[in-house]
Amino acid sequence: MSFAATVLTLFPEMFPGPLGTSLAGSALARGDWSLRAYDIRNHGLGRHRAVDDTPAGGGAGMVLRADVLAAAIDAVSPAGDARPRLLMSPRGRPLAQSRVRELAAGPGAVIVCGRFEGVDERVIAGRGLEEVSIGDYVLSGGEIAAMIVLDACVRLLPGVMGKTASGEEESFENDLLEYPHYTKPRDWEGGGIPEVLLSGDHARIARWRRAEAERLTRERRPDLMRKRENSENGA
Ligand code: ADE
Q: Residues 107-151: pLDDT tens digits?
């Protein structure tokens, strides 16, 4: 069974967008995953198909109505749908490779893209939405965030990336940033390639790469380094 993605959005024309090209696009064409972009406005109310209204208690912006969004979710993901339901939101738990791995191993995802100031709080619990953030900054809507989640999942699907090894060694799979890479030419603008990489000594190369990955992680992501040290201590 392949990974089935359904995205609920007010801008279905944004999809597949970049997901229709490159690795994700070829996988989509092969049927390794499926993508349905569903227009929340199909469930809009009245002549203007209204989907949002002013926030209770006053304040700026508009809020997606609970009834409209719930009707849209129910139309594409009836009770019994085993797929997790995500709500893209800067308020959510930050996306990490561990969650991406879980999602990619499952049946797919139903992803709600927020717009306006937010969505009516009641629909989050009422439809079991898991709020997911892609980082501590605010986008104008959840669509690009949803694409990021899907791109990260799709590349992990069986057969999508040529060499699975390249997926296992890369950044975050072991809470380390990736070591530096080099290729031709051997001398370029006065810079050479570290001698160890030309030595043919695979054990030495592996040690060097490991040390470089740890150095970069310590320098750039002390938070990741602490996380590694804590899990090594069994904490
Ligand atoms: N929508 C707006 N900003 C977002 C973010 N940082 N992550 C996920 N969804 C968002």
A: 999 999 988 789 999 999 999 999 999 999 999 999 999 999 999
Ligand 1 close to Cβ of residue 140 (< 6 A)? no
HSE-CB of 36 using CA atoms within 13 angstroms: 15
Please tell me the distance from the alpha carbon of residue 187 to that of residue 61, in angstroms, as a whole number: 56
Residue nearest to atom 2 of ligand 1 (CA): 139
Q: At what angle do helices 97-105 and 143-154 cross, to 10 degrees?
A: 70
Q: Where are the domains of the chain?
A: 3-154, 169-232
- Judge whether 72 and 42 are in contact, CB under 8 Å: yes
Specify whether the CB–CB gap between 68 and 122 falls below 8 A: no
9 pocket-lining for ligand 1 (C-beta < 6 Å): no
Ligand 1: atom nearest CA of 134 is 7
Q: Do domains 3-154 and 169-232 have the same CATH topology?
A: no
CATH class of 169-232: mainly alpha
CATH superfamily of 3-154: SPOUT methyltransferase, trefoil knot domain (3.40.1280.10)
This prediction's pTM = 0.94
